[in-house]
Amino acid sequence: MSTAPRFDIDVPAFWQDPYPALARMRKEAPIAFVPQLGSTLLCSRDDIFVSEKQIDVFSSHQPEGLMNKLMGHNMMRKDGDAHMNERKAIFPAISPKTVRSHWTAQFEGHATRILDDLTPGGVVDFVRAFALPFSAECLKSITGLTNMRFQDMNAWSQGMIDGIANYVGDPAVEARCHAATSGIDAAIDDMVPVLRRTPDLSLLGVMLQTDMPMESVRANIKLAISGGQNEPRDAIAGAVWALLTHPDQLQLATSGAIPWLQVFEEYARWISPIGMSPRRIAKPWTIRDVAFETNERVFLMFGSANRDEKHFERPDAFDVRRDASKSIAFGAGPHFCAGAWASRAMVADVALPLIFTRLKNLRLVEGKPPRIGGWAFRGLLDLPVQWD
């Protein structure tokens, strides 16, 4: 393992709120070996920004990694030409042009239909009432798996997320992950003949028009589901919560003084829905006085980078007025999130403006604060609200 200083964490406390420990690491040991996670963590924004681009050292190719073992060898776990070839193959489905001309109208349809079904008056968990089904319905459209229920999309995404973050080796978590991937494979099998006959702009439809091996098609659909459900779901619910607890900033957004996209970017900086990305050290390497050995595992801690005091004043504060351009919530190198444009459209162009236009006097429920958790993936577990 690396020569990084050891830093011990309380795993349950780290799951509840990782930011105090990450702040200590940035100050005392920005590169630290955490035995409870079996990995060396890179916590400073500058180290991560540089290292993520050095794919010859910080390799995404991790044959023994949890994602490869549980979900198949997808493009996120490939480097160089192998990564770029698959990235180019899916680009027609998720390019900025396709998002603008094709997907945004579908996103608006999903949001409007779900909001139409909501009833004002009582206490509602907004995660389950809107953020979860909206994200899942949009993802059904994008992946091409329109044959599944939104509840399955969410459950299977969560099963895979829990599985690939299961660094403590809980067998029950692994079993749920296997059940999720089996369900997705069955859904893919049902849709393949349909989309071969009538190709569309979905991820599955586009990949089936290439020579990509079927095992790679399956792995990349699972990749899209693992990140494409939780990130928009958590960003929508989280941004609503952040704005309701900062009414002055909500007024800036609803008045048009601050663009909704700026709200989304600041929330993604403040509470990074994807807080970590693992890498494998491909060759001996040294950063300052820390030496790494070949094949050891490191975690690029995006959630820490986005609160780095060197780049963000009052980093623990949510402030839509700040310049969040140095945030690396979507990554910083060749593995920059391919779904970033779709996510921005879902959250900033559609969900947030419609929510605050349609749900009059939307407010938090006194005495029922939302629960939040996670460090590799972080988001609200519920959001009790009411509106008139």
From TrEMBL:
<dbReference type="GO" id="GO:0005506">
    <property type="term" value="F:iron ion binding"/>
</dbReference>
<keyword id="KW-0349">Heme</keyword>
<dbReference type="InterPro" id="IPR036396">
    <property type="entry name" value="Cyt_P450_sf"/>
</dbReference>
<dbReference type="Pfam" id="PF00067">
    <property type="entry name" value="p450"/>
</dbReference>
<keyword id="KW-0479">Metal-binding</keyword>
<keyword id="KW-0560">Oxidoreductase</keyword>
<dbReference type="InterPro" id="IPR017972">
    <property type="entry name" value="Cyt_P450_CS"/>
</dbReference>
<protein>
    <submittedName>
        <fullName>Cytochrome P450-pinF2, plant-inducible</fullName>
        <ecNumber>1.14.-.-</ecNumber>
    </submittedName>
</protein>
<dbReference type="InterPro" id="IPR002397">
    <property type="entry name" value="Cyt_P450_B"/>
</dbReference>
<dbReference type="GO" id="GO:0016705">
    <property type="term" value="F:oxidoreductase activity, acting on paired donors, with incorporation or reduction of molecular oxygen"/>
</dbReference>
<keyword id="KW-0503">Monooxygenase</keyword>
<comment type="similarity">
    <text>Belongs to the cytochrome P450 family.</text>
</comment>
<dbReference type="GO" id="GO:0020037">
    <property type="term" value="F:heme binding"/>
</dbReference>
<dbReference type="InterPro" id="IPR001128">
    <property type="entry name" value="Cyt_P450"/>
</dbReference>
<keyword id="KW-0408">Iron</keyword>
<dbReference type="GO" id="GO:0004497">
    <property type="term" value="F:monooxygenase activity"/>
</dbReference>
